[in-house]
Amino acid sequence: MNLVVLQNWLDNASFAVLFLTMLVYWAGAAFPSLPFLPTLGTTGMAIANLCIATLLGARWLDAGYFPLSNLYESLFFLTWGITTVHLIAENMSRSRLVGTVTAPVAMGITAFAAITLPNEMQSSAPLVPALKSNWLMMHVSVMMLSYSALMVGSLMAIAFLIVTRGQNIQLQGSSVGTGGYRSNGYRLHKAGELVSEPVAFAENNDNGFVRYESNNNGSKTAVLDLATATATQALTSAEPLSPQRLNLAETLDNISYRIIGLGFPLLTIGIIAGGVWANEAWGSYWSWDPKETWALITWLVFAAYLHARITRGWQGRSPAILAASGFVVVWICYLGVNILGKGLHSYGWFF
């Protein structure tokens, strides 16, 4: 079997394995009582990761350079990075829910690369002079790994928002204290029971208005009454989350934070390495090229997320929304710039 046939077989095998793995993860989420499904899903991800690594290695041997010269190769490298980060996240969290969101994305990227792209875009081609450098491996591989980690972290943030139904819950260690989550007036205690917060009661006045009072040592102010009334309306209008959902939300938030914390330093190193390579190739460390500009925007978005989490102590919905928006920003930086704009980084679908 020659290398070309092996590559064609491996990209189709990667797609098939990821498709079946996605179904396994979804079945595991729907039927959590089946104990073999999580292990089967992790095995499928590991097999897909090995297939893609073999595919990239075969292209490396065939072309004679690191396989990151066109869109087809970079998409498979991105998928390899996502599956690698997925396995790391599963090992850290001991949660198989990660695969329910990462497997569909990995499968979709593989399908786009193996099925949608025309044959001429999938074949290896000689490198343009600017890419004939050791920086191709040093800069591009680090950037792609950072994209993979940031995408997985953003996907966990999106899953967090879905699990919590967009409600503004406070996580353990926040202003709630050591009690855990608070959602719509309920607090998840360590024992797992839900305890209702003190609820204000209403009193009808002679003038027809309703005044809300709460247990605040006899202090009754208009501001407090308004705040209590708002809290009471929130209690009656939104259904509190179950302890299982809250525990799941805590896991997703923790995975998202830790994976983004892994991807952000890689992004920083990749941008610095890119600046050094740009100075070597073009005589300038920074040219405000569209790719460079969006790389900076991506860096600022996730820097703001980490700053909000570490310095400001934000937790819950607000930083999750910021991380979720980072998923779109990463895709614009990675792919959108090459489709919508021209710049120094446009080498015919080069990432």
Please name the defining characteristics of this protein.
10 helices, disordered C terminus, two-stranded antiparallel sheet, mainly alpha, 5% strand, 5 strands, 3 domains, 351 residues, three-stranded antiparallel beta sheet, flat
Question: Could you characterize what this model shows?
Answer:
The chain is mostly helical and 351 residues long. The protein has 3 domains: 1-126; 151-171 and 241-351, no CATH class; 185-237, no CATH class. Helix content is 66%, strand content 5%. It contains 10 helices and 5 strands, in the order ααααααβββββαααα. It has helices spanning 3-30, 36-63, 71-93, 98-116, 119-122, 135-163, 222-237, 243-282, 290-310, 317-340, and strands at 182-183, 186-188, 194-196, 201-204, 210-213. Strands 1-2-3 form a 3-stranded antiparallel sheet, with no helix packed on it. A two-stranded antiparallel ribbon has the order 4-5. The protein is flat and about 60 Å long. The two termini are 30 Å apart. The model is unreliable at 173-237 and 347-351 (pLDDT under 50).
Computed structural class: mainly alpha
State the total count of DSSP E strands.
5
Q: So how many helices?
A: 10
Weakly predicted, low-confidence segments: 173-237, 347-351
Largest sheet: 3 strands, antiparallel
What is the chain-wise order of helices and strands? HHHHHHEEEEEHHHH
| Share of helix, binned | 55-70%
Entry summary:
The chain has helices at residues 3-30, 36-63, 71-93, 98-116, 119-122, 135-163, 222-237, 243-282, 290-310, 317-340, and strands spanning 182-183, 186-188, 194-196, 201-204, 210-213. It is mostly helical.
